[in-house]
Amino acid sequence: MNKHHESTGPADEQRITLRGPAELADALPYLMGFYPNDSVVMVALHGGRGRFGGRLRLGIPQSPQEWPHVAEQLAECLVKGSERRGEHPDAIVVFLCQDPADGETPGQTMERLRPLAQRLRTACGALDVPVLEALCISGGRYWSYCCPDARCCPSEGNGLSLPGTSVMAAAAAYAGIQVRGSLREMEARLAPLKTPAVAEQPQALDSAGAALVPRILDKEGRKEVARETLGLARVLMKRLREAPATAPSAADCQDDSLISNDEAAAMILGLQDRETRDKAAEWMEGPEARSALRLWQALSRRCVGPYEEHAAAPLTLAGWVSWSTGDEPGARVALGLALRVDPDYTFAQLLHQACNEGLDPEALRRCLRGESSEQKERGHHRAERVVRPRTVRPSAVRRNKAQPGQARPRAVARRRDREPRAHGHGGARGGR
Predict the structure, then answer these.
(1) Torsion of CA 318, 323, 328, 331, to 10 degrees
(2) DSSP class of residue 252?
(3) In whole angstroms, how far apart are CA 299 and each of 267, 308, 410?
(4) What residues have CB less than 8 Å from 191, skipping those under 6 apart?
(5) Beta-carbon neighbour count of residue 347 at 10 Å?
(6) Beta strand ranges found along 158-289 (DSSP E)
(7) What is the Cα–Cα distance from 232 to 224, expressed in whole angstroms?
(8) Tens digits of residue pLDDT in 169-195
(9) 191 - beta bridge partners?
């Protein structure tokens, strides 16, 4: 068996040493904050004792033809991300987590994924970083792709420890760290609703699109829609905040019932404007953060039917608030879903990369606080200069009226920025 010693924290914190594949497999949910399903997970190790560093997760591509390219991308992302923080990884641990397909045994799943494990090992080796351990977890069992000793790593695999009985589980309980369930369960909380109550949501989104799109495409109308969207968001956040407390299992249903189809549609369409979304991102701390997160999650669930791609904006905001308030597992899940519905959504790309690299969100919080202060200051100066209301010429208020049904589901003002896509961590205005 390959013996290694991994420390779960820096030198000034309590260290938990994990020895061998069994303890690594049992530690995975506590490293991620949830049980990953259908996932490739890679964790960087630093120093002679193997201190855990950056980690990333990606859904396992269904087509094996994608595996070589994905393996190279994942290895480069983890290694380069660690280097940007000033620490070249000394090793990497790989986890492949997937339940057996219909008619497949866990052992067959492990063998089917073996080429992917080999691709990942080769890709990491090409960057001069060895894969210390590569594990497959399937059907409540684990296998090591690196250990050739059948005495400790038999061909039929080993059973995982009972939940809560491992060394890592004890340390996590002591530290107050909780595993929230499976990735599939966390994603379900953000998935489009399929209840009869939202059967008319697509029609509400059609109507909102017909009314709002022409206004968003107009310079002055865009500002008006932004004010309306942010004002409605404040109303909904207050409504959610003042709702009676309920059991966690019923909280999402209650939030959904407090937002009408028309309100959800207006918010979803309004958030497709980048500047409006960036203003909404300022609600990322303090008493506003919790109600804002609930609102973004509820709006993500209302992006149904042909409007599923519109969920990128509320999902990214949910991921940002989660990350800003210290909930990295929740952030990774929300941002991963945002990129699933729109892989080119730059704001989600930047946040997802920064979160995976373990960066501190305070830099972005300072940026958003600074923008908010500057805008308030500019507004104060403008108010001082106003002598009397300005007369608006009739030509300035003419609008092209959209006929019902004219607006296509994607014909909203989610215009791609003209500047090149950023590849590093930046502020909220770094992309769509």
Answers:
(1) 20
(2) H
(3) 8, 11, 17
(4) 301
(5) 27
(6) 158-159
(7) 12
(8) 656 655 556 677 889 999 999 999 998
(9) none
